[in-house]
Amino acid sequence: MNHLYVIFAIIILVIAYMYYNIRTLYSNIDPPKGLPKLECEKFNYNRLMEDFVKVDDTTLIACGAEFIDFYQYYSIYNPGYIFKKGDLVLFDIKTKKFKNLELKNFPENLIFFPHGMELFIKNNKKYIYVINHALNIKDGERFEIFEIIYNQEIISHLNYIRSIKLPKEFMGSTNALAVIDENDIFFSTSFPEPPLAVDEVTPFKKFKYFFIYKLNYYLDLKWTYLYHYKDGKFTRIEKSNSACDNGVAYDEKTGYVFVAQTYEKKIVVFKYDKISKNVIYERDIYLGYKIDNLIFDKESRILNAAISGNDFYGGLAEIHLDNNFNINYPFYDIINMTSASAIQIDKKVYIVSPIKKYFLVCGK
Fold first, then answer.
1. What φ, ψ does residue 107 adopt, rounded to 5°?
2. What pTM was estimated for this model as a whole?
3. What's the Rg (C-alpha) of the chain?
4. pLDDT tens digits, residue range 83-113?
5. Among 36, 182, 191, 353, which one is least packed by beta carbons within 10 Å?
6. Residue 246: which of 298, 295, 188, 297 has the closest Cα?
7. Rounded to an integer, what distance in angstroms lies between the CA atom of residue 319 and that of residue 302?
């Protein structure tokens, strides 16, 4: 029976792939015209970096891992494979050097497979919330919470505080998060069916996972969502579904929650009332490019969107909230890389890519 299912699934995928290519052929997007020529430097790191946070004007902290997500992981997985723990790494903007941060008190036997991350500040203390795909059923999908520890105004290490464990339905599918308060979080899913934990993999289940993932991607079936976690309760947000919900950001001043919809090439804006807990759809912001992570800068009030065009070039789009959502494209790089996270600091653009093991720093 499984063999018939596989043959039928392959036929469906071939048809879906042909449809996708025809659709894509007529939607190719060139980089924006007339952008300034910027010189770029590459600063290599030994891991892929999917996301980063801006701690201050001189410090970025990124997550590093062997793989970006479960799709990459299961592309090579076999029962004897030993997963190498991921890490959190500091990038010093002044010295252009990396510093691997110690994760003090983090459980020794817990797999650390970091993905999306967010900076949260409360009572003058800085915390980093990190999505962790812990791979097995027992540990599951989690939000790991670390406090940034300073020694004479220099970041010394990260101290593990606690975890928020997600239900099994989110196993391996959470993508990005925005922290409103300690137990008030919005997060996105980017996979239509939760990837399998390593202790429940069979060849057929693995094939089924790849089939559903590709079908959703090729046919734009809108099977992923934005979710709201509040005091132990998980709620799916209406009108948030897409083929791949991605970056999430929050503006405390307006109550806006932003979620990037990668293949729809837009950012959806919701209004969140912390008192009533109501989440209401507000508007769409169309960028015309695939969108990955979002970083909202409270000081400049700019929403930074990492954008890419048909997987051949990556860059940055800035959405100015105080100027009627005006969109600016300060930089686009044509070096065969997509952009996972990007931000402009002091006229320099900082980009990480899900396919390159380096920070790209560009500026005049």
1. -55, 125
2. 0.89
3. 20
4. 778 899 999 999 999 999 999 999 988 989 9
5. 36
6. 188
7. 6
